[in-house]
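Researcher: I'm preparing a figure for a lab meeting and need a structural model of a single chain. I don't have an experimental structure, so a prediction will have to do for now. The sequence is pasted below. Please return the structure as tokens so I can convert it later.
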Amino acid sequence: MRHCLLFSLLFSIVLQLSGCGAYRNYDLELQQTTDQLKAGDTNGALALIEAHNPDEEKDLLYYFEKGAVLSAAGELPQSQVAWRSAEQMVIQRQDTIETAGDKLLSALGNQWGSIINDKIRRYDGYDYEKVMLTTQMALNQLAVNDFDGARADIKKTHERETMIARQRELEYERIENAAKAQGARVHYKDLQGYPVVMLDSPAVIALKNGYQSAFSHYLAGFTYEALGEKDLAAPGYRQAIELRPDMPFFQQALHDLDSPGLKAGESDVLIIVQSGLAPARSSVRVPYPVKLEDGQVIVANVSFPVMVPDTSTPPFDQISLDGRPKKLITVNNITDMSLRTLRDDMPGIIQRTTYRAFLAADVQGTDNRRNPAKASYVTHYDGFEHADTRTWRTLPNLTQVLRLRLKKGEHMINLPTAPGVAPLKIRIDQDRQIIGLRALGDRIYANGSAFQASTSPESRVVSGLK
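Model: Understood. Here is the structure written out token by token.
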């Protein structure tokens, strides 16, 4: 009884500190929001984000999602404001781990938060989200030909990667030491009923880690090249090659640094097409047998996260430019990055989750000893035993690119996801220029200075419906 009373007391304290995060169904909230995006209603999506975040103090995901929706809507300055707020929160949390309330959550702690549910831990963002944040901010700048502004965000991307690498090294060392101290190591492959296939796919294993994006480094190379800083462009391209040595596209960029300059009236154009949504996180229950000191074996039903890929946008690998098909090259896949992140995070998740399993089994074992006639060797259902499903859902999933030289002037571009829509008119007027498009379902979001001459604000969201 004393265990139960203590657990209940700490549970109520943690819930108050966490703003009842364990009750929040973030996946459902974002499904409603992304449904509005798929329908082309960015105002509706923004209204839902605000409705789901009524507290005056907003969390990191609020700024992640709001910035992405505003960017799709063509409200690039407002998008930058939201993402700068997210960036500030990330920076603050790099140096200070907890606020006063979080310190109690940590003292009781993040330890007790983990015992009850990962969902009530403060959401600090996954590493790939932090890196893609500054990459998406750079894309906002490049959409209006602000290469200097993009340069600043790209520099932050590189600095963040270095810091994450140090943090991950320390974290994995801590988890390894804790596993040795416990004398038992559980691998995700040992979890009965857990879908390990996705975590072990060749595309996931091929990634060096879950946060470094070859595309981000390639974008850095292109930006530095546009600014005339070839000595900085080369390392960007080389890093992209190191992360994805199987892609000739990156190698070609490095090779072309020494090629002749642009001809008169010509532009070096990078077309970037982002499509779909980042995968959702879901929760799967797994039976975990716990052997107690008295010999009882209690099966605890605990929950682990799984990734659910987005299927909102049909796959495509080409666009139409001036009536001619052009091949696109996939340079970034958030689904693969998130799976690699989950794969790398599983030791820590298992450590926290099995801790909860041992606690629940111990409580059940105590009840069994007190009342053998009603003994149960499976823990009772716990409505709070649910994996953390929070993640940045409005982040585009696939990034595909096409780089070519075009004559300055007007050109027509179209995507196969919107066959019933007239081609979009773009204007090329810079020596080096980026054209950004986003495909979501049968909608195309096209924003930036290249589209302003021919696209009114009301038609920035282009429907694919006939």
